[in-house]
């Protein structure tokens, strides 16, 4: 006997009347027990009522899987009331992951072959909702027959089912090609809309279908022209626009058919112009049709005048009060800016106004489009607008805005001074938001503009005196003051207002940076190096600088402590070399050999390691070797000290080679000889570190004249690490006098074949000579 249970309406009322979730669960559990009991007893008359209640429980999120087999029984029932609930349950409870869904294939096939429209509609709806690939293959022929049925109700549902089948099984496209051509003659808008959708799916998934349907472009143009010219229709018009859904679908299909096809594009040009000029945009429906028209014009091979018209339509969209329409216009213009730059430029003032939109998404799109519109002719005006926006824009846009301004200035800067001023303003306004390479780019820009050194250092000093919170700005200012502090103290710069700066003020400002809690460790490193460089540029006593350096010798930051210890050692032991070591940094050429941003930022940190290897002022030109071997060693960080002796890397690098290395086990090699000047290489591989190679370069002079200002520079590929120790001198006396020696330390962890490039610079017989050559015949023992 079936346990009495609630009716569906009573169940809904009781569930809604539950005051707590626990009461709701109790009601549902009790009713689910009644439903299970009814299913077990096999009551055929009330099975559809029980399943209807179970479907409502399923819609509330409770498990209802035990009703799957009951759905199959109801679908197989000859009663329409049972089939209706059974098909609804199949759509809700079954999917491709359930094996039970395959069991209804025969039932759907039988129902499709019946002449009852309502039953056929139920079967088609279920198939288009949860039909798997296997079901689609089995039932494709049945659906294809229904596409040409007299009943418009069945045809419309059959078309939608065919769309689902094509999406599931694209290889079924050949079955549906013939009926589509006939369905285009339909007057029923629902069937026509489904047919256009089906053709679109076929064209997107099959090149053969795309070629086939290009023949019907004139018919599609005729249908769309009829829609555009038709007056108001109660059945299809929305806000005064005749069936905008069908118009949008046809425009999307025309866009696919006309893409990269001249003949089809020519056929639809006049129609697109008619739609673009006659569509009312006062309502959202008209704007949707017009936007699809613009996208179609831009995707096909349309006439130039038509493309300008499309851009102007988007320009009008920017003035619309609807935020969504303005966002769509900005997004579309951003896509077109590359292909139709001049047409989009006409709307630049409107785009700039959109920067100050309160809506964040609109403002971001306007920023992206504004940056894309910057070129050499408008860079000054656009940069000024963007800088004004940068001062008040939301924090989440500042990074993108600052980076965009810096990139635009780098590409289109009219002068170096304007470029420097632009970067300085960005650093002052939003320094913490700029990219990591902004400091390196600005220091390189200032270093390459010799005529602007005085101007730059004065501007940066004034900015630093006002604000030390912007870390990139502080780093650039500290670098510039350290390099060109002598120009700052001279006070002679015609391009800026007179500024009298005292030595004590400069030192006090750098000490303030060192002591500030806002300064990062890298910033303190810049400031400490700047103080060290000022010790050779200031005319006063350097005792104050010595005291500051000695204080940071016990700093908790290891890198800063190491730098201070090295500088302190330079003061105490090698004071006679300080001026040569702390000379101005050379300019690194941009391009393939350019030091990347991170290496550039740490250039000051490695100053003592890269500069202390020479006693000649011109020895700083060692960095010019960065382009000797296709960018070799230029992109790599300076190699770490290879000698782990307690004396430290600095002291080891400054130890002049007083005695030759141990007797070589590798044959010596003569690599250069000219006018009595000879260069010989001898090799030693220490037994403790087989990856290390010591090369002693020995230069001798047998000519009748002295060789002066002799400098030997070397470069190796990126996979190697190279250190050059200081040479024993820079003069080679005539007639075989005392030779000049220099030690190269090369680390080859990968045991790759060694390539070595040398550059010799010297004066001989009153002439300056420079020789660059590559040594390719090194003994195999040097790397094996």
Name a few traits of the molecule.
784 residues; alpha+beta; five-stranded antiparallel beta sheet; three-stranded antiparallel beta sheet; 35 helices; 56% helix; ARM-type_fold; transport; GAE_dom; cytoplasmic vesicle
**Percentage of residues in strands:** 5-15%
Total E-strand runs: 10
- Number of continuous helical runs: 35
Rounded to the nearest angstrom, the distance between the terminal CA atoms is 93 Å
Largest sheet: 5 strands, antiparallel
Oligomer kind = single chain
Evaluate the radius of gyration.
41 Å
Low-confidence stretches: 591-664
Task: Provide the fold topology.
Blueprint: H1 8-17, H2 21-41, H3 47-59, H4 68-76, H5 80-93, H6 105-113, H7 117-130, H8 133-146, H9 152-168, H10 173-183, H11 189-205, H12 207-213, H13 217-229, E1 237-238, E2 241-242, H14 244-258, H15 262-278, H16 284-299, H17 304-317, H18 323-336, H19 341-345, H20 348-353, H21 360-373, H22 379-392, H23 395-412, H24 416-430, H25 438-448, H26 453-466, H27 471-490, H28 503-515, H29 521-537, H30 543-551, H31 558-573, H32 578-581, H33 597-601, H34 607-611, H35 649-654, E3 666-674, E4 677-684, E5 692-701, E6 707-715, E7 721-724, E8 740-747, E9 756-764, E10 767-775
Antiparallel strand pairs: 1-2, 3-4, 4-5, 5-8, 6-9, 7-8, 9-10
Helix pairs in contact: 1-2, 2-3, 3-5, 4-5, 5-7, 6-7, 6-8, 7-9, 8-9, 9-11, 10-11, 11-12, 11-14, 13-14, 13-15, 14-16, 15-16, 15-17, 16-17, 16-18, 17-18, 18-21, 21-23, 22-23, 22-24, 23-24, 25-27, 26-27, 27-28, 27-29, 28-29, 29-30, 29-31, 30-31
